């Protein structure tokens, strides 16, 4: 007795799905473009975005230049967005606002282009070129619409991606540091120093600067200590300058004892060089 309602529900669902499939197959063969447009919108409103996208893509060239073209492009972009095809939706939204710049939907379309790129961007462990593109697009949106209803959301996304860039840069710097402590450390000492200095320049207020500036002193000392005679003085002097930069910025630090040890060692080596 309990199985009958379940079987009935399943039967209804199967009939509904079969009906949608049959309708889609008929529309794909149809040359009635009014029927195709109505069918595409109907599929969109039912959340059947793959079918809607297929039909919008089919009829867009036919309706190009008509009063319906704007609506088709708008629904087409959102169909791809809801399908998770963020690169494609970003492109469609870009086409929309560049084509229909005076449309009341242009503001939303430009925001959605940037937002689609944001959703497509990877985590901090991966290469960040798409995240950088998302920031540029979002900033361009804010420049064009400084009082937009999306203003807070856009700024929040930019802030989030900046943190992602900071984390990625920190991970890269630490990777070079680890390589500079391995068997072939001499090959990576200068590269590690460069990444530390680049990080400090790009993220001057980062919470990671204390650690990385300490590692700059440590790495600089190691580079100087493993250099040929004619480069040792210059590189030990560079270590002392990095030490001074650190002390000026972090007079009280968990790294103070260790960094002062590098200062003393570098000073001693310089005194030896000057007396020889």
Written account of the structure:
With 276 residues, the chain is an all-alpha fold. It has a domain at 180-276: Serine Threonine Protein Phosphatase 5, Tetratricopeptide repeat (Alpha Horseshoe), CATH 1.25.40. 78% of the residues lie in helices and 0% in strands. Helix 5 (86-99) runs antiparallel to helix 6 (106-120), helix 7 packs antiparallel against helix 8 and helix 11 (229-249) runs antiparallel to helix 12.
Q: How would you characterize the largest beta sheet? A: none
Q: What is the CATH superfamily label of the domain at 180-276?
A: Tetratricopeptide repeat domain
Runs with pLDDT <50, length 5+? 7-15
Q: Tell me, rounded to a whole number, the average pLDDT.
A: 89
Which structural class is indicated by helix and strand composition? Answer: mainly alpha
Ends apart, CA distance between termini? 102 Å
Number of strands: 0
List descriptors:
276 residues; elongated; Serine Threonine Protein Phosphatase 5, Tetratricopeptide repeat; single chain; mainly alpha; 12 helices
Brief account:
By secondary structure, the chain is an all-alpha fold.
Topology of helices and strands:
Elements: H1 3-29, H2 33-45, H3 49-63, H4 69-82, H5 86-99, H6 106-120, H7 129-144, H8 151-179, H9 189-202, H10 209-225, H11 229-249, H12 256-275
Helix pairs in contact: 2-3, 3-4, 4-5, 5-6, 6-7, 7-8, 8-9, 9-10, 10-11, 10-12, 11-12
């Amino acid at each position: 007795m309990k199985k009958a309602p379940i079987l009935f529900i399943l039967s209804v669902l199967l009939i509904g799905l079969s009906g949608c499939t049959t309708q889609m197959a008929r529309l794909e063969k149809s040359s009635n473009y009014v029927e195709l447009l109505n069918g595409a919108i109907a599929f969109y409103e039912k959340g059947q975005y793959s079918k809607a996208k297929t039909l919008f893509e089919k009829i867009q060239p036919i309706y190009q230049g008509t009063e319906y073209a704007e609506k088709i492009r708008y629904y087409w972009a959102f169909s791809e967005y809801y399908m998770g095809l963020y690169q494609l939706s970003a492109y469609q939204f870009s086409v929309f606002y560049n084509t229909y710049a005076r449309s009341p939907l242009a503001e939303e379309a430009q925001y959605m282009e940037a937002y689609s790129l944001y959703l497509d961007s990877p985590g901090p462990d991966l290469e960040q070129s798409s995240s950088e593109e998302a920031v540029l697009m979002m900033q361009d949106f804010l420049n064009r619409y400084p009082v937009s209803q999306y203003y807070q959301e856009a700024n929040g996304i930019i802030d989030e991606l900046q943190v992602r860039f900071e984390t990625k840069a920190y991970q890269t710097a630490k990777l070079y540091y680890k390589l500079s402590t391995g068997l072939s450390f001499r090959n990576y000492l200068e590269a590690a120093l460069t990444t530390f200095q680049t990080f400090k320049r790009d993220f001057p207020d980062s919470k990671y600067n204390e650690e990385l500036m300490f590692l700059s002193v440590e790495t600089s000392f190691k580079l100087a200590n493993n250099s040929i005679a004619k480069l040792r003085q210059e590189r030990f002097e560079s270590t002392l300058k990095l030490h001074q930069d650190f002390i000026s910025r972090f007079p009280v630090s968990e790294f103070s004892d260790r960094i002062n040890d590098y200062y003393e060692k570098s000073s001693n080596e310089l005194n030896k060089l000057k007396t020889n």
